[in-house]
């Protein structure tokens, strides 16, 4: 479990990025921090592995104050996946994935064998192992980034807008892959995004932030959609003016779900377990 207790961050120029932030992140689930630019979401994420140190309050992992832990050792035990993958361009895929385990003293042969297994885990063909990042597509690079983040089998995986730089189709594939990986591995994932649809898709717990790291509302996607805390949250999730309210529109014999803007959101079908919704696309932000 990760706990933020009255955490604040003021930078040397005097700007306040986070002010008195308190939150508990449950183990083996996905918590998504979502907000616009300036909401402090990335600063909060980077405080977990001490890439940024708070100026007030404290952060604990399973009761241990991270400020008292060696930052290098802490980072090596926490997986980190960033936007644009952040791969080392002069190293092959297999060497990128195996890098941290080797730094931790794992034999190269063992680290490479595990790296190949991780390529399987993230849905990449092992034939890509000897290629360099520039020889991969954007989606493939992001999958390698996820594999690298999992290389030390961390309990915690931090993901800083990892799918923000790829096209919508690839982004959807990567989101589904992450859901599959989480079902299989049950990590404690902290995911940062500015996209509320991505937050609702991936998050067991969603935290909507105002500027300065102020929690506007935290809860499950269903709780937030059903009961937005205020007008800011309602606007952010697209619930104002009924944009998230769906109704059935019969068209060509199908039962089509339409949102408040008239955009098709899915089709109702009778599945094995009864009536089910088949999504046709994300609801608008």
Automatic annotation (TrEMBL):
<dbReference type="GO" id="GO:0015418">
    <property type="term" value="F:ABC-type quaternary ammonium compound transporting activity"/>
</dbReference>
<keyword id="KW-0067">ATP-binding</keyword>
<dbReference type="InterPro" id="IPR003593">
    <property type="entry name" value="AAA+_ATPase"/>
</dbReference>
<dbReference type="Pfam" id="PF00005">
    <property type="entry name" value="ABC_tran"/>
</dbReference>
<dbReference type="GO" id="GO:0005524">
    <property type="term" value="F:ATP binding"/>
</dbReference>
<dbReference type="InterPro" id="IPR051921">
    <property type="entry name" value="ABC_osmolyte_uptake_ATP-bind"/>
</dbReference>
<protein>
    <recommendedName>
        <fullName>ABC-type quaternary amine transporter</fullName>
        <ecNumber>7.6.2.9</ecNumber>
    </recommendedName>
</protein>
<dbReference type="GO" id="GO:0016887">
    <property type="term" value="F:ATP hydrolysis activity"/>
</dbReference>
<dbReference type="InterPro" id="IPR017871">
    <property type="entry name" value="ABC_transporter-like_CS"/>
</dbReference>
<dbReference type="InterPro" id="IPR003439">
    <property type="entry name" value="ABC_transporter-like_ATP-bd"/>
</dbReference>
<keyword id="KW-0547">Nucleotide-binding</keyword>
<feature type="domain" description="ABC transporter">
    <location>
        <begin position="2"/>
        <end position="237"/>
    </location>
</feature>
<keyword id="KW-0813">Transport</keyword>
<dbReference type="InterPro" id="IPR027417">
    <property type="entry name" value="P-loop_NTPase"/>
</dbReference>
């Amino acid at each position: 479990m990760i706990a933020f207790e009255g955490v604040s961050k003021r930078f040397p120029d005097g700007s306040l990025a986070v002010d008195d932030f308190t939150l508990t992140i449950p183990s083996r689930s996905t918590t998504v921090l979502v907000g616009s630019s300036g909401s402090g979401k990335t600063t909060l994420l980077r405080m977990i592995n001490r890439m940024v140190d708070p100026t007030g309050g404290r952060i604990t992992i399973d009761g241990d104050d991270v400020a008292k832990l060696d930052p290098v050792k802490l980072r090596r035990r926490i997986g980190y996946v960033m936007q644009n993958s952040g791969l080392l361009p002069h190293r092959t895929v297999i060497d990128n994935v195996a890098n941290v385990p080797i730094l931790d003293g794992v034999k190269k042969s063992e680290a490479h064998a595990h790296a190949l297994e991780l390529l399987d885990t993230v849905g990449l063909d092992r034939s890509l192992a000897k290629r360099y990042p520039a020889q991969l597509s954007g989606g493939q690079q992001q999958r390698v980034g996820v594999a690298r983040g999992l290389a030390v089998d961390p309990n915690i995986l931090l993901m800083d807008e990892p799918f923000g730089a790829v096209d919508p189709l690839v982004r959807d594939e990567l989101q589904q892959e992450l859901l599959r990986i989480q079902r299989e591995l049950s990590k404690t994932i902290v995911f940062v995004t500015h996209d509320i649809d991505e937050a609702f898709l991936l998050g067991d717990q969603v935290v909507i932030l105002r500027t300065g790291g102020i929690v506007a509302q935290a809860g499950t996607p269903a709780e937030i959609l059903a009961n937005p805390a205020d007008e800011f949250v309602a606007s952010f999730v697209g619930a104002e003016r009924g944009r998230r309210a769906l109704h059935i529109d019969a068209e060509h014999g199908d039962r089509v779900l339409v949102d408040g803007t008239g955009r098709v959101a899915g089709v109702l079908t009778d599945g094995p377990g009864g009536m089910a919704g088949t999504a046709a696309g994300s609801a608008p932000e």
